[in-house]
Amino acid sequence: MITHHQGLMRIPGKGESRRFLFFVCSGVAFYIGLQWCLMYPIVVLESMWGFAPLRRSSYLVNGMRRVVFLMMMLLGIPSLIASMGYTNFMANVNEGRTGWVFVQMLVYVGLFTMLSLYNIVADTVLFVYCKELHGEKVSRIEEKSGGEYVKVPLDVV
Predict the structure, then answer these.
(1) In whole angstroms, what is the distance from residue 99 CA to residue 25 CA?
(2) Between vectors from CA 36 to CA 51 and to CA 131, what angle results, nearest 5°?
(3) Residue 95 and residue 84: Cα distance in Å, rounded?
(4) What is d(CA 130, CA 62) in angstroms, rounded to the nearest whole number?
(5) Is residue 68 within 8 Å of residue 37, measured between CB atoms?
(6) Model-level pTM?
(7) d(CA 37, CA 122)
(8) Residue 141: CA atoms inside 13 Å, Cβ hemisphere, count?
(9) CA 67 → CA 73, 126, 140, 154, 155, distances in Å?
(10) Residue 133: which residues within 8 A CB-CB, separation 6 or more?
């Protein structure tokens, strides 16, 4: 952000440029995460690798960005809060306050595990929904799973 001041160009200070760079990088990372959120289900269920799952994810997310954004917020905000709590917990452990360390570690590990599993399931359900939305059949997924999974009706999602 270069500003004009009395005919001269002024380059912003270190603090301003770092903040600007942080917000630009955060925005780019968020957009990429939004576009590529279906990458893991595509790799597993469609047996793709390399850049193909990334392109496929961008294609399937098309028209569902609002849903993906809300899903990322729903699962991302609790993950952020848990991460901040864990960071605070580790700072307290390093300062010598170690009461109930084992119990606290179990709580954080359980919380992270639960959030990760919810995220995987939500991404997989969103993948199936996006595939149906784009007019593709999901019968191959049913064949790969061997009929072990319960089919979710699309009008519920």
Answers:
(1) 38
(2) 95
(3) 17
(4) 9
(5) yes
(6) 0.70
(7) 10
(8) 20
(9) 10, 9, 24, 15, 15
(10) 63, 64
The DSSP letter of residue 149 is S
| pLDDT tens for each residue of 60-94 | 999 889 999 999 899 888 888 888 888 877 777 76
| Closest residue by Cα to residue 108 from 93, 124, 127 | 93
Render 36-48 in DSSP notation, one character per residue.
TTTHHHHHHHH--
pLDDT digits (tens, 9 = 90+) for 5-59: 554 445 555 667 888 888 999 899 989 989 999 999 999 888 888 999 999 999 9
**Cα radius of gyration (the chain):** 22
DSSP 2: -
